[in-house]
Amino acid sequence: MSGCLDRVRETDDETADSVRLCQAMVFNDDETETHHVRLRLREGEDRLYDEEAALEPHDWLTVEAADVEPTEGAFTFEFQLNGAGWHEMDMTSIRSDPVAATALVTGDDSFVFLESSKGNIEC
Q: How far apart are the first and last CA of the chain?
């Protein structure tokens, strides 16, 4: 992960029409467990990326701008943890350019979304 990410704000800020993508990542920060994750990236109704993996502790699954077309749009980052329900983040609510987000897994059904802040990532 390049730069720093911040916890997602709990505000209802307006979203942008489109953003420039840097990356979306699922990171297993659980010290003891392997977790099965699935990561998807959508732009509107179009699924741009869909991959799954068993992540060992401190392992990650990432989609970067080089992996998708288009690299600018109204992206939704979705992930599934251990076969349970889907969790999603509207990346147009991130206030940086380009945007990056991480789903930080901390347990069997425990995670937090982190997002880039203006000027804290390099792509």
A: 10
Q: Cα torsion at 43, 37, 102, 94 (round to 10°)?
A: 30
Within the chain, how many helices (H) and strands (E) appear? Answer: 0, 10
CA distances from 44 to 18, 37, 41, 73, 85 (A): 11, 22, 10, 8, 20
pTM for this one?
0.85
Structure tokens at 3: 């730069």
CA-wise closest residue to 82 among 59, 58, 111, 102: 111
Whether residue 57 has a cis bond before it, omega within 30° of 0: no
- The per-residue pLDDT for range 34-85, each reduced to its tens digit, is 999 999 999 989 999 999 999 999 999 999 999 999 999 999 999 999 999 9
Encode 46-89 in three state secondary structure: EEEEEEEEEECCCCEEEEEHHHCCCCEECEEEEEEECCCCEEEE
Report residue 67: phi and psi, to 5°: -90, -10
